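[step 3/7] fold_predict: job queued, chain A
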Amino acid sequence: MTIAPRGFTLIELLVALFITAILFSMGYGAINQAVNHRGAIEDQQARLLAVQTTMRVMSQDFGQLAARPIRDPVGDTWQPALIAKGASQGQAQDQALVTFTRTGWANPAGIQRPALQRVAYVFDKDKLRRDYWPVLDATLANKITHRDLLTNVKSVAFRYMDSSRQWVEQWPPQNVPVNPSDPGSTLRTNPMAVEVTIELQDWGKIVRVFEAPQ
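[step 4/7] structure written:
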């Protein structure tokens, strides 16, 4: 007796399609989750790189402080080698928190200029920015070069260690005795160390201390 071949019923086909749809849905969910996780990891890596780059730039800057005052842009007075106003809270936007002279300005193109550089750190809205001038004794006509270091910044605060190893929030410190034989010595005074506290909107506070050359 020959038995005729039996095909799939409609219910069996629907069950098979339903199971296949579930498997495809699970697979798509796993792939989508992996893609989202990869994007989040790449964002975190980019953020970490920006923070590390900022700390490295600051370490190079404050590690090469130079006790060289500069002429006022108008040209009738002198500005200290390092001048600072303290924390970013209460400061006007786009105002420098600290401005200083540093050595070691690389010159790969061999341009006729000194190896000293005038640098400023600026807190502008939610960004920490590094500015520098093309010449040391700049005038109002000189163009400033801007470089954004960090975004999503809530506040920035600098402190400076004086000769008595006390932390102060502005530089030059107040009530510094003037040497009668060298009145300009206060303009050439640099701190022993610089502390920076950066509060980020996503990572909280980051505190670093940089030793300054003496």
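[step 5/7] annotate
The radius of gyration is 30 Å.
The chain has a mean pLDDT of 84.
exit 0
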